[in-house]
Request: fold
Amino acid sequence: MKRIGMGLAIVVFLVVVGAILAPFLIDLNRYKPTLLSQIRPYVGREIDFQDIELTILTGLGAEIQGLRIADDPAFSNADFLTLDRLKVRIRLLPLLGKKVEVRSILIREPVVQIVRNAKGAFNFQNVVISQAGATGAKAEAQEESDSSSSKKTSTGSLGFLAGFLVNELEIQHGSILYRDEKSRAGSEPLSVEQLDLKVEDVSLHGPIGIRLSAALMEHAKQNFDLTAQVGPLGEQLQIEKVPFKVQADLQEFPIKSLLAWLPEGLPMGVFGGKLGFQSVMEGSMEQGISSETEVDLSDLVLQELGEGGEMTGKLEGKLSSKMRLLYPAQQLLVESFACSVNGNGVQMEGSLEQFLKESRWDVRARTENLRPADLLALFPMVARSLPKDLRLDGPVVIQLHSSGNPGDFKVDGEASLDGMKVEYGETFRKAAAIPFSLSFEGEKKAANLTVKKLGVKLHQLDVGVSGDILLDKPIRLGLLVQTNSISLQGWEGIFPILSSYHIEGDLYARSSLRGTPENLSANLQAASDRISFRMEASGPARESSEPIPGVLEALNLEVQARMEAGSLAATAELKAKSGEVRSIRLDKILGRFQLQKNVLEIQGLELRAYEGGIRSTGRIDLASKSWLFRPVVQEVSVGPLLDQLTQYKGLFSGKLSGELTAEGAAAEEGQKAAVAANGQFRISEGTLENFNLVESVLDALFGLEGVAQALSKKQGEIAKHEKTRFDYMDLKFDMKDQGIQLNSELHNVHTSKITDSDVLLDGKVGLEDQLLDLKGKVLLSKKHSEDLARQAEALKALLNPEQRMVLPISLKGSISKPIPSLDSQYVLGAMARYYGRKGLEKLGEELGFPKKKEGKKPVEKLLKDLLQK
Reply:
């Protein structure tokens, strides 16, 4: 026994000594040329190493130092792969049975440089078996295949690989650099540093452990960790049945480092921020894969690209998801998905089926505490693009549901702004308590989108849109828009401009839209049983005047519009059975309008008012803001019209007929609008209520020295009128240069009992001061003239060839207080000439001048000569 023990000890001693001395006695470097010659045919690159040595005490195997694989010369002259050391350990006992089983592989400090050139090719694409090696490999594989067939080994078996599996693989302090010359030429490469990878318990019959750590994007320390368990693989490898569990963790990843790698054309880039996530995935392709992920964004700041681009506020984002993938059933179940930015979030759940074929989905989404004002404050560049007077305050609640596939799907949703305060300057103001929502329900089949309802609810308004949209080229629309019967009360709180109108009543509207967006036709119909309103007076009298009431009954509006090549053309017809404005009764209101080439034509506006008819045509040029109106009136009671619409109350009466043309243009800021008008009217059976024109003139005539004494009647005995009454007055006017040029004729003016005197006036009326500057004459009736001439023979000097007495007059003062005056110098001069002529005739008789013969007037000729001299 002692000899046996001594023998075993000697053997062990010799083995240990041999293990110690073997690396020094066996030099594997002398086999380097042979090893490289065997490897190079299988690698499409230049390959080399510095040293190779045998290891025994730390495990039977070999250690290679300074291994390098050259890059493709088309990319660079550098190395594609370099590593400090490569250690391979094999099992001893299987080696005694002529089987090679690798126990472990250790790779220290590998550096891999990956490049994509400008043509999109990668530098690792030809790191494959060479043609010669491929041919030998194919022959060898064929022999192995034949051998396997002869042994009737199953094609899917992995048993033959059991001896080649590595029990343990470890990479220490590796680096990967990626440079993209196609999309990001000249930019810094993406880097993975401090890469540590350990794969343990590699086998076919147990789970394989994997742990990976690395520093991403030149981070100072490792900020990425991944742990996983995969397997068992089984001898019959079926990927779908292999179970696994993977956990990944990323911390403080600098998002700005991705700026150069983001897609081109983005409106904003990353200025700063950090990214972190935690994710867990487990299961198998056959049984299903469950995943839970959480992503955190902290201190994220975005900046508009370009010089002087604005930056966002600091964004704090969160994303979490919980999903399950059932691969055999091609089904993805989203149990929950939520993302938020500074507390403004969106949640979603649903499913995606048949994602490898014609995918189908069923998804629901909703918002959580979504406050647009908060997001706009964080994104000033977005807020800048919105109207500056727009103000939002409060949450919006959005719900959305969609199901189907890309060719056939349904979608419905609603956005509630009930709790939001919305303001747009002085135009629109919705308080938080006023209902306001948008909704949509529709479905798409092939190229047809059916809009079951696109709804807008605001206060008491409910607008619904339905119809079809053909998603073709071009898109074609066929939509119907209609409202409920809207109460018009209470809208002044939403539209402040309505507050001065005090509108009450109801309104119903309906419209259709047909055609393409570039060639669209619309038909609008609106109706109301009754609309009442009150308008504030304008001008200086606004504060002291009562609001002007009005009402329209049985109102109907129909509009036909067409948008073609960016130009809008439309026709409209307005009808109302009756109405009342300022206690003015309006009946049979009818208006016809046409819009074409930016010009609104008033083809006809007709109504009955003031016991007569009014109609008008005109146009408004919307581009130049110029306008033209041609109103025509017929038998309108002018007294009530002026009493109610002007300041000249109680001054006129009669029936007005005629027409005028008025035109002008909108004034520039700080200037007065230029308005010009001209026309002609007739007032029949009229009265000037504030003075008696003819009687005032006669009073002046009777007051002249030499006239009163000659009259047989005293002035006080002549019948008086407080008004100027006439059968009709013809009036022509031309308004321009802040004045009105008048030409008027009053016919059959009533004086005492005689009714056929006439008055002719011509002159100017000031628009601003309303002062009169008129001149003309009074033509007394023939009978009246004869009566006066009999009583005062000298008045015959005022007779015209028609034997009507002509009295020149002027009219001064204002429209409310006119001051007529007689041209007394003319009257006295005519009378003097009359008396002189009579005196000369008498003197001629006394001197024996011959009496005048037919056709000859020597006395008159003498008188004329004397008077002229």
User: Anything to note?
Assistant: Residues 2-25 form the longest helix (24 residues). The mean pLDDT is 81.
